[in-house]
């Protein structure tokens, strides 16, 4: 059988498993690249080559630094201080919650941020007699959009960067996502504050899934809430993060992004902000293995021509000389719809190599297309299962499925329009 057809068959099975999650996402990705090796599509050296990709190393290092922020209590302390200073006015409290969540989510786990702040917010709402639903949905929204500001803010950003790297194309810089992430965060922030809040249901705090919150905190690296926190370690973890971010911003030739991240992670362990086992536990291994596995699948799609087959089919459906703006808008919608019902990491991993092939087939720079796909995968507002932050606030906010639809669909449309306008300004198609 033609290697391209074999690759497409493996991709189709992987897509089905990503959507249904019959088996874990990371297992699906690693099984896909393993199968391509067994079937002879990929040589043995390339089957697991994704695990040695520099972006995997970068992400691993930043996971550890983020875990140190939660373990030392720094992230929680910052969030609580800002939220408490905002007072008990509904709009002021909402603005403070969203602002601090956007900032924290841009450099650390959005799930961990929500898990740490949610109990405090529920408590403030109960004391001030403000419906918890009015503050918890904005918390989840801010966590989702805040991750779009940096490369490590959300997994889809890393996925599209890795896909470009695997294809031998120029990649995105660490802060390059801010060109779209900051304007988009500002748009969503003000929309929620002045318009979107009217779509929020008026419900008192429901039952909080304590186990889910605890698991989310542990996954992000946060420890026991009752354990004493060292202010010295809080400062150290904060300074390490600032140092790593500055090093990345300076783009020093001897200190590439992944080296800066690993240096920061090592310092977190040496200074006692994290123990060795806590550092390992702070790494989101699902994202690491899913990313690495799908990089190898992307390589197979490029080398066998499977990606070109998909690209040609899509382009032919759109007629002769399809407009890159229209094509990008369509791909954004596809990615955005998928991410409401499946992992945003999986949807980005699935579509990134296809997006590159489509862009190249019409003579368009793949970067704006990949940026649109990655951002679209993070705009997961319209269903409770779209992202962990959405799921975490479901019970405490007393939300129904329709509540997410009413609030989320307008935001998805606003994000779509904003991205179609803003992305080509910073990343021209030609």
TrEMBL record:
Which InterPro entries would you find in this protein's record?
Cit_transptr-like_dom (IPR004680), DASS-Related_Transporters (IPR051679), Na/sul_symport_CS (IPR031312), SLC13A/DASS (IPR001898)
Q: How does it sit in the membrane?
A: Multi-pass membrane protein
Superkingdom per UniProt: Bacteria
Occurrences of domain Citrate transporter-like (ranges): 16-363
Where do transmembrane segments lie in this chain? 47-70, 177-196, 234-250, 256-274, 281-301, 325-356, 368-387, 407-427
Protein location: Membrane
* Keywords recorded for this protein, A-Z: Membrane, Repeat, Transmembrane, Transmembrane helix, Transport
Q: What is its main location?
A: membrane
The GO cellular component terms are: plasma membrane
Entries under CDD domains matching the protein: SLC13_permease (cd01115)
Annotated GO molecular function terms are: transmembrane transporter activity
Q: Which protein is depicted? A: Cation transporter
